[in-house]
Amino acid sequence: xxxxxxxxxxxxxxxxxxxxxxxxxxxxxxxxxxxxxxxxxxxxxxxxxxxxxxxxxxxxxxxxxxxxxxxxxxxxxxxxxxxxxxxxxxxxxxxxxxxxxxxxxxxxxxxxxxxxxxxxxxxxxxxxxxxxxxxxxxxxxxxxxxxxxxxxxxxxxxxxxxxxxxxxxxxxxxxxxxxxxxxxxxxxxxxxxxxxxxxxxxxxxxxxxxxxxxxxxxxxxxxxxxxxxxxxxxxxxxxxxxxxxxxxxxxxxxxxxxxxxxxxxxxxxxxxxxxxxxxxxxxxxxxxxxxxxxxxxxxxxxxxxxxxxxxxxxxxxxxxxxxxxxxxxxxxxxxxxxxxxxxxxxxxxxxxxxxxxxxxxxxxxxxxxxxxxxxxxxxxxxxxxxxxxxxxxxxxxxxxxxxxxxxxxxxxxxxxxxxxxxxxxxxxxxxxxxxxxxxxxxxxxxxxxxxxxxxxxxxxxxxxx
Length: 465
Hints:
Order of helices and strands: HHHHHHHHHHHHHHHHHH
Structural class: mainly alpha
Distance between the termini: 37 Å
Mean pLDDT: 83
Strand content: under 5%
Number of domains: 1
Helix content: over 70%
Number of helices: 18
């Protein structure tokens, strides 16, 4: 028996313990999430400590985050869009269809990566000023972004194609993809920043080199002998129907990243008016903390998706229900505990990124407001994950837009006019959206999934009789 046949048997999620299958994926994925966060978070930790420059470099980096989010959005569009479809096809035994999805996703990532690089370099200056840059912070933002954009294609490949490694059940290999790049970034950052004295541009160079190595590792695995699904030139020819299906499902992850970008722009622009560069720096710290805290939630939901998708394709409804219950309970329990810790020890988390007394004083109350009721956010993550795993693109897209565009963005503009101090209104928009959007998404998911699985249960009974 060859390696591929063995892998297929080992990665059959319709057998064995559901919780065990999820944990076997979620634990390496969570570690991979932690490692992946190091790309940007380590940059912020080092940049926030550049001697003699205060918080301006950190604020400049924060201004680049909406554009970074757009790059991630397109990686999600073809990565998280096609990966569940691959799992469903595998569950049905359709190897050829799964590889066609993989090949078309690879083609679209190449094309959009090149296009985003060109557009970003052409329009970076007006975009950064529109996002809240000042004459003091623009040079730092420009130095970082000019280099980062040159590595867009590497980011797209490493993030987008890694989803297809995880979707096949190779979570440890997916973890290695991010581990290799993150360790490089961890080593290169202080070298370029403090030894070569290259400033914020050095942090960007370290990130691009690290992502390039990760991308090469990912492609090497997906073209090698140890994967179930392979990138084949015969499957890379664009198929409009396949691209449409990938894009339709990927719009959920795409909209989540795009709406995050929109909210970051609105928040930074509003804070620059009411609080100046200091509060743009505070928001950068808060967003950085959020990336760390949501990491286990992303690991659990991402680890659950292949299991749910595979069993949906195989018609194993009881296993789908078990997976959803475990995922939701784990996410809610974790975020509740973290909310309490964060409320009690805010300074510890803030000092991970900046230790200036003025920023710390401003960030403590802002952080407590922003993370109020943090557990409700896990309901949004869980609901979105299930919709995406089952291929229910319309619901996933709707709730992505609802929470960020319909709730957060308008409240960010409105609340500062009604609340004093005005900056608190910006931070209050997030918990309000978590309560409304999270409850609506999770409640709808339970209703839709319950109806869907009852229908398929009936079909199975009729077929057996």
